[in-house]
Amino acid sequence: MFGFLRCYVVLAVAAAGTDNTAGGYDAAQLATYVWVGQGLLSVVGLWGWTELADRIRTGEVAADLLRPVPPVVSYLAADLGRFGFAMLTRFVPPMVAGAIFFPLHAPQRAATIPLGVLSIVLATVVSFAGRFLTNATAYWLHDARGPIILWTLASGVLAGLYFPLRLLPDWVAVVLYVGTPFPSMLQTPADVLVERDGSLLQAGLVVVQVAWAVVLLAACRLVQRAAERKLVVQGG
């Protein structure tokens, strides 16, 4: 339902323009962008993950610290396993539905598909790191619902789920791409797959994703180490 609503809204925006485009996307690219976003929503896991915060609240996180694998690595491995399953069950069906009812953009460059797959994997890693950091606030706040709600609101808007960020003024889009990790979680893989930009810029967007993945995973490790030095297990 939301896929159809979003698709018709962005197509109406494009139809209002003089050349049937909006933000540099033609109608087929906009339709593809919407259905890619619908599929990636569950694949990258923007919302809904509270396992770490719940285990911190109950004290069960102490068991995680006894394992030979660091919590960041073990949770990331589990999230990548979820990603693989979600690609088959949550990404493919929306794309098939979109292809039945709308003309979608077929990649015109050979490098787009492998680069798109890499971009989706990196989007999942960036999303995981953001969710981990948000959940980790429970080490200090005990109840992480506030930060998780803020993360949900921010990621929906700033990741490009509700509308393509390229519809914003260019300088705003650049600031969001470079200054925040949110576009790397959904906007970038969608832009890569619809070939919104030339090959060089397409690859440059993936490089930005790599940078955000490295920075955020390093931040996860630092936050986890800081928490372990101060951890008080609930109930003694």
Overview of the structural elements:
With 236 residues, the chain is mainly alpha-helical. It contains eleven helices and two strands. The chain has helices at residues 2-15, 27-43, 51-58, 61-65, 71-101, 112-136, 138-141, 145-158, 170-179, 187-194, 199-230, and strands at 21-22, 25-26. A hairpin with a 2-residue loop joins strand 1 (21-22) and strand 2 (25-26). Helix 5 (71-101) crosses helix 6. The protein is elongated and about 60 Å long.
Biggest sheet layout: 2 strands, antiparallel
Number of domains: 1
Order of helices and strands: HEEHHHHHHHHHH
Query: Count of helical segments?
Result: 11
Write down the Rg. Answer: 19 Å
> What does the average pLDDT come to?
90
Query: Could you give the count of β-strands?
Result: 2
Q: What general outline do the C-alpha atoms trace?
A: elongated
Overall structural class, as computed from helix and strand content, comes to mainly alpha
Identify the quaternary structure here: single chain
**Kindly, what is the distance between the CA atoms of the first and last residues, rounded to a whole number of angstroms?**
48 Å
Strand content: under 5%
Low-confidence stretches: none
